Amino acid sequence: VVSTQSTGATKFIKSISTTCVPNFPDKNLPTFFVYKDGEMKTQIIGAVNFGGMNCTADDLEWKLKNIGAVTSKMERDPREKHFIPDAMTSAIRQANFQNDSDSD
User: Fold this and answer.
1) Which of 34, 69, 81, 98 is disulfide-compatible with 64, CB 3.0–4.6 A?
2) Nearest 5°: phi and psi at 68?
3) DSSP bridge partners of 39
């Protein structure tokens, strides 16, 4: 991902991995190298870091927006609508909140 200085646009460059980085392992694909002002700002390496096999275009846009690689009108993480609350974690948080309130 390359952000151009003159227009602020983002360029996506596709390449054969071993052409860019000799002996680059396939297990690290997909990979994004994010540059800004000529310097590498971050790397996103491997499917797990993209959300696995269920990664959507919206998920990718959200991730790239948060690292500053693209502009977006998205205001919320699109994965939130698929989030299933963990009942045990919620119960622990509620108990901790009640214990903190009792000490006042």
Assistant:
1) 69
2) 85, 15
3) 36
Query: What does the DSSP assignment read for 48-84?
Result: GGGTGGG--HHHHHHHHHHTTSS-----S-GGGGG--
What is the full DSSP assignment across 21-57?
STT--GGG-SEEEEEETTEEEEEEESGGGGTGGG--H
Instruction: Look at residue 103 in the predicted model and tell me its pLDDT.
Output: 52
> Any idea which residue has 């602020």 for tokens?
8
pLDDT in tens, 2-58: 444 445 677 888 889 888 889 999 999 988 888 877 888 888 898 888 878 888 888
